[in-house]
Design a protein that fits this description.
Length: about 450
């Protein structure tokens, strides 16, 4: 039997197919724009490889797009018909759980795979992704710590493991460990987007804004051929400028970098969930600071309206509402809430997240847009402790915290404003008075 580059047995037809599999995994780990083409080449070379079909189904799920579920299901059926090793069949079971709306079960299966095969990068990286979007940084840390003894710098993929170690520890608040791992990964490959991203998060959380701008500027020349994660890194660059109150720089990055309509990456996936989150949250933050953003909301609202009823990405739901509300699309906003309410009636863990976190956050956005600040505060306050379950990083979730403090201040609910400031102080080592979204409240309210 053939093996992948990390020494795991592969059901493939030839050594050439095994190397094609490795090429796909490398593209996946390094966030390469051509990863889909790499997968197509692998499937053309060996359509009977079970993990080829599993990857095709998993990549469809990564899009968090209801329209991709049928493709994922078809790929799973093809994989199951092909059979495979015990490990490969476990991958099929994980994909089946994910499709079925049980990412919690998929996490457990991937953890089982990595317990037996700590160098299975497909299981490891899919776990890292899903645990993040389930708001489970502890499981991210646990996963990477458990596989580390099976790795060494000589094994291909070591840098990508370090990049995941970086981001997992950053989300857990272990910034020293995170930064060291991320910088070590960049030393191996300066074009490692996930490592660059992890360190950018550390610098953001610690308020090291000048370093953050320098970090991104120094690494950007290495990003040719990257996918949408480049957009997210430019969004981080805009965050640093936002904290410096350089709003012109923020809008320039919006137009020319992370929401550039002419970018081939944007054109390939114009409504990708992470890009929509980047754009909507940045415009929302700017408007909270009183900055006019022109008609930039319009194209976001068009895409949000077209996706009403697609609730696969819980964290995207309030972002879609930001666009709908900002453009005065009241009827669309009502349909969005109605669809979300319907999806929240299910009995899966995902439905519970929609019910307990996404729905109140999305309602609060709509109420805030209508200047019903007291109601927005009242709706969001009981959900504050569950917002992490939406997924997203601390830096991304911060927009919902800003929504709450802004609503509290405008409603004259000083107790809730104090609560928001205390939460902000607990989530970041940077005092609220030094953070653009909380500074005005911090000056007005003792906390």
């Amino acid at each position: 039997m053939y093996q992948d580059a990390q020494g795991n047995a592969l059901t493939v037809a030839s050594a050439e197919a095994a190397r094609a599999y490795d090429h796909v995994i490398e593209g996946f780990l390094k966030y390469r724009f051509d990863t889909g083409l790499r997968l197509k080449a692998f499937l053309t070379l060996d359509p009977t490889a079970p993990l080829g079909q599993v990857m095709a189904g998993s990549f469809a799920m990564l899009a968090y797009d209801q329209g991709m579920l049928a493709r994922a299901t078809t790929c799973l059926s093809r994989a199951e018909a092909l059979g495979g090793t015990t490990r490969e069949r476990a991958h099929m079971a994980a994909l089946a759980a994910w499709i079925d709306g049980r990412p919690d079960r998929a996490l457990a299966i991937w953890e089982g795979i990595n317990a037996e095969a700590p160098r299975d990068l497909l299981a490891f990286r899919l776990h890292h992704f899903c645990a993040f979007w389930m708001g489970a940084p502890g499981r991210m840390v646990g996963s990477v710590e458990r596989v580390m003894p099976g790795w060494s710098p000589e094994i291909p993929g070591w840098g990508s493991v370090l990049a995941c170690l970086c981001f997992a520890h950053e989300e857990a608040g272990l910034y020293t460990t995170a930064e060291a791992a991320g910088r070590a990964a960049i030393d191996i490959d300066p074009g490692d987007l996930w490592a660059a991203h992890g360190v950018a998060h550390v610098l953001e959380m610690q308020g090291r804004r000048s370093e953050g701008l320098d970090w991104i500027a120094a690494l950007e020349p290495n990003w040719d051929g990257g996918n949408n994660l480049m957009h997210h890194l430019w969004w981080h660059q805009a965050l640093f400028h936002l904290e410096n109150r350089d709003f012109d720089a923020v809008l320039g990055l919006y137009d020319r970098r992370f929401r550039d309509p002419l970018s081939k990456v944007t054109q390939a996936q114009p409504d990708l969930y992470i890009d929509m989150q980047n754009a909507a949250s940045m415009l929302f933050r700017l408007e909270l600071r009183g900055i006019a953003v022109g008609d930039r909301w319009r194209e976001l609202a068009d895409k949000a309206e077209a996706r009403i009823g697609d609730t696969l990405s819980a964290f995207t739901q309030p972002h879609w509402m930001m666009a709908l509300a900002a453009t005065g699309r009241g009827e669309a906003a009502k349909r969005h809430l109605a669809a979300l309410e319907e999806a929240a009636r299910g009995n899966t863990p995902h439905a519970a997240v929609l019910r307990d976190a996404a729905l109140p956050a999305t309602r609060a956005v709509a109420l805030h847009a209508e200047h019903r600040y007291d109601e927005a505060c009242a709706v969001l306050r009981p959900a504050l402790g569950t917002l992490h379950r939406l997924g997203g990083s601390h830096a991304q979730q911060d927009v919902l915290e800003q929504l709450f403090v802004d609503s509290a201040m405008k409603a004259g609910r000083l107790g809730d404003a104090k609560l928001a400031l205390e939460r902000a102080a607990g989530r970041s080592p940077v005092p609220p008075a030094r953070r653009v979204g909380f500074a005005e409240a911090a000056l007005a309210v003792a906390y």
